[in-house]
Write a structure and sequence with these properties.
Helix content: 55-70%
Number of helices: 5
Structural class: mainly alpha
Radius of gyration: 12 Å
Order of helices and strands: HHHHH
Mean pLDDT: 88
Shape: globular
Largest sheet: none
Distance between the termini: 14 Å
Strand content: under 5%
Low-confidence stretches: none
């Protein structure tokens, strides 16, 4: 696990997408579980996994790609926020560190 990349994802969620620090723990928990399901960690390899990892993981990979300074993904910001809101509804709070 690359903790620097994970910190970049947390900072992107917190400062660019304006999510609460406690919500970021739940979001990163979901991204981490999707990355593990695809056989990756939260790093640049998962950022380029795209649809090969699955439809839900494509959104998580797009978030990681945007957070790591990549060019983005084919998924719209509306779809990304909609999926994040779904993750927040179905995942209990994990705290700031998760």
């Amino acid at each position: 696990m690359n903790s620097i990349d994970e910190a970049n994802v947390r900072n992107y969620l917190r400062y660019r997408l304006q999510y609460d620090p406690y919500e970021c723990g739940s979001i990163v928990y979901n991204i981490r579980s999707l990355a593990r399901m695809a056989g990756h960690d939260i790093d640049h390899r998962f950022a380029h996994a795209g649809l090969g990892a699955g439809p839900e993981a494509r959104i998580a990979a797009g978030i990681v790609d945007l957070a790591l300074g990549g060019g983005g993904c084919e998924t719209s910001m509306y779809t990304i926020r909609q999926e994040i809101d779904r993750w927040l509804r179905v995942t209990p709070p994990k705290g700031m560190i998760a």
